[in-house]
Specification:
Elements: H1 2-15, E1 23-27, E2 33-34, E3 39-47, E4 50-60, E5 65-73, E6 83-85, E7 93-100, E8 109-118, E9 126-135, E10 137-138, E11 143-148, E12 162-172, E13 177-182, E14 185-186, E15 189-191, H2 219-224, E16 257-262, E17 274-282, E18 288-297, H3 300-303, E19 307-313, E20 321-326, E21 334-338, E22 342-343, E23 348-354, E24 364-369, E25 381-382, E26 385-388, E27 399-406, E28 409-416, E29 419-420, H4 439-456
Parallel strand pairs: 2-10, 15-17, 22-29
Antiparallel strand pairs: 1-3, 3-7, 4-5, 4-8, 6-7, 8-9, 11-12, 12-18, 13-14, 13-19, 16-28, 17-18, 19-20, 21-23, 23-26, 24-25, 24-27, 27-28
Length: 457
């Protein structure tokens, strides 16, 4: 009886399976995180073996490079500060954590947790297992701006022209959602891969003659510019010769400024059709630059003083980001002249310092002289400032026109130059460039000639 029981126990020992070690590793998933947040990567593993090592890797270059960010080696350390019991030790479930206190864009990418344990059958064999996770780091946009494409641009009175607003959003990851609004209402735009080449949504009527508004400059000045036909140019077209005598304060009321404005009178048969295009390009720092364009055929009569806004939605933003501009034609230019009392031979600077309103887009400035060419012989000068070097007496009373224009409108400002006598330069001894000539120069040449003759004899 005892012999048979012992034989049965031996048979059960022979049929018992050999000892085997199991190891499972998994990393807890993480939602996308925002730059600056604190992130903890958690690696959970379950085993019935004895710990050998834990290694965390950051994977870069498409998996070709693995950078160690944490290592625990049981052979040389008994410090379990980086590894804590997830449950009771007898449950054989452990957790290793890696904390990134302030995550950056460069931390974006895959991570791996590798765990090694000793085989229960022999300590010479190590069982390995790993888990991986992709850390998605988001960054909110850092800047947003709205600009006008192809500016500064002239004003077109007789023909409709396309106008494009560009919204530039930088610093975001992933690419944001960009859309436009007009006067606070979303714009329904037709998506296009490329901006339209020609205007097709408006049908303007060509103007056969120049239609002046009631606010236009008086016809005397318009005729001096050649706009009025058949009439004799007024006396202001020919600047008076000679110098302005310094007689009283009435002479010093300078400069004289006349402002004119003009708008087209187009007849449109349809509401504008907006065209929208959205592109984005990666930046070296891992973010994305997004550009959205809104193109339509401009109608200055209804688009002037219209408020356009570009808004951005992004998962890293709690509320939309926006930038807005108001389309405004230039009006009320502020012109200064230095020196305030120009004398013969001085260098005069006439500058547009600003406008009575905020102008958008940036205006184009052109200077001309009414009834004649500029001092340097050119017909016009581009820029905010006109410089007249060594003004002669002949420029006294001359009138200069500054045309400030953008696609929404144009304004002309006329200012008159008053040139006073220069006590250092006698009357009539300067040429057209303001340099001294006359008897003094003749005497100098005669003296030099006599000196040369005496030396030759």
């Amino acid at each position: 009886m005892h012999r048979s029981r012992a034989a049965g126990d031996a048979k059960q020992q022979l049929l018992a399976p050999p000892l085997c070690t199991y190891l499972t590793v998994s990393i807890e998933p993480l939602p996308p995180v925002v730059v600056g947040d604190a992130v903890t990567l958690k690696c959970n593993f379950k085993t019935d073996g004895k710990m050998r090592e834990i290694v965390w890797y950051r994977v870069t270059d498409g998996g070709t490079i693995k950078q160690k960010i944490f290592t625990f080696d049981a052979m040389f350390s008994t410090n379990f500060s980086h590894m804590e019991n997830y449950r009771k030790r007898e449950d054989l479930v452990y957790q290793s954590t890696v904390r990134l206190p302030e995550v950056r864009i460069s931390d974006n990418g895959p991570y791996e947790c590798h765990v090694g344990i000793y085989d229960r059958a022999t300590r010479e064999k190590v069982v390995l297992a790993s888990g991986n996770i992709f850390l998605n780091v988001m960054a909110p946009p850092t800047s947003i701006s709205v600009i006008a494409a192809d500016t500064p641009a002239p004003f077109s009175r007789y023909q409709a022209q396309n106008f494009t607003l560009v919204c530039v959003v930088s610093g975001g990851k992933p690419a944001p959602l960009v859309y436009f609004k007009r006067d606070g209402e979303p714009i329904e735009a037709t998506p296009l891969p490329e901006p339209p080449a020609a205007a097709g949504s408006w049908a303007p009527r060509n103007l056969l003659h120049r239609d002046l508004d009631d606010t236009k400059v008086p016809k005397s000045l318009a005729a001096a510019d050649g706009d009025a036909g058949g009439g004799r140019p007024p006396n202001t077209a020919e600047p008076p010769r000679g110098l302005a005598a310094e007689r009283g304060p009435a002479t010093e009321a300078i400069p004289e400024t006349v402002v004119s404005r003009e708008f087209p009178r187009w007849v449109h048969v349809a509401e504008p059709i907006y065209y929208f295009r959205h592109t984005h390009a990666p930046v070296s720092d891992g973010t994305v630059e997004a550009r959205a364009t809104l193109t339509w055929t401009l109608n200055p009569q209804i688009d002037n003083e219209a408020l356009f806004s570009c808004e951005v939605k992004h998962p890293a933003l709690s509320m939309p980001m926006q930038s807005e501009v108001t389309l405004v034609a230039p009006k009320g230019p502020k012109i200064t002249m230095t020196p305030t009392r120009a004398r013969v031979g001085d260098t005069v600077r006439i500058l547009v310092q600003g406008f009575q309103n905020e102008v958008f887009p940036e205006p184009l400035f052109t200077w001309t002289r009414v009834g004649s060419r500029l001092l340097d012989g050119s017909a016009e000068h581009a820029g905010k400032e006109l410089v007249l070097e060594r003004v002669p007496a002949e420029l006294n009373g001359s009138m200069y026109r500054c045309t400030a224009q953008n696609p929404l409108g144009s304004t002309d400002t006329h200012t008159r130059l008053i040139v006073f006598e220069n006590p250092n330069i006698p009357r009539g001894t300067e040429d057209s460039n303001g340099s001294v000539t006359g008897h003094r120069s003749f005497r100098l040449v005669l003296a030099l000639t006599l000196t040369v003759i005496l030396e030759l004899t």
